[in-house]
Amino acid sequence: MHPADDDLPASLGPVRSRRPLGGGDVGAAEEVRLADGRRVFVKRYAREGGEEMVASEAAGLRWLDEVDGAPPVPAVVAAEGRVLVLEMLDVTGGSSLDAAGEELLGRGLAALHAAGAEAFGAVPPGASPALGSRRLPVTPTSSWASFWGGQRVLPHARAAADRGHLSRADLAAVEEAVDRAEELMGPPEPPARCHGDLWWGNVVRTADGRPWLLDPSAHGGHREADLALLELFGGLPARVVAAYEEVTPLADGWRDRVGLHQLPPLLSHAVRFGGSYGPAAGAAARTAL
Question: Which residue stretches belong to region Disordered (predicted)?
Fold first, then answer.
């Protein structure tokens, strides 16, 4: 028996073979072939709080999968303890999409967001009320500005400043953006059903050309925030936006708010990595003011 077999859910049955796929921020992953012929993707969360993260990711995938017309996500095969078992995808070309794939992604995201959520900060049934790699607690609220500023921006900003990764001037700019959030965030929007960690590393293309979404930090959020994260790490293709707006037009001035929506990921990265992320967050805040 492989030493890791003991932690696999018994419902999977015997293992025929396994292939390591490397690790990430949270632990190791592998492809496992089962005796019944199935191929599954096994992810082990080695960090403290791994059980909570497994339950939350599984709940998020199921929540996104409820939406007709949304981009597909891997099916949850099992989620027990610190082990998450998912459908194994036949991925080709990473996140590189052709024109048809970009259009599918845009229309799919519009459908996903339109499915809505109970409140800003609401998490899927079965998920813990915490988001991101730092597992910051969240409390549902009817105010996007309050959720964004008080629960998504300031906790990261203050942690980054405490570590010396965000200057006083940049912190002041971020705090001013939070103070003016009601004014700066544009027309009111209902809570959207958001992926929550939608950078291009979490978008993959399967052999049939379809874009699939991975590793959600799913919650009720602002639809512009998902799009802003795509733009931050890899760019937001015009074809994705055009296809999105064929389904649901974006509010006037949405491009002016991209920097505001990028503050949470920029500040989270500033906490963890330092470097240029702190100055980038300060610049994004000043641009929005």
Answer: 1-24
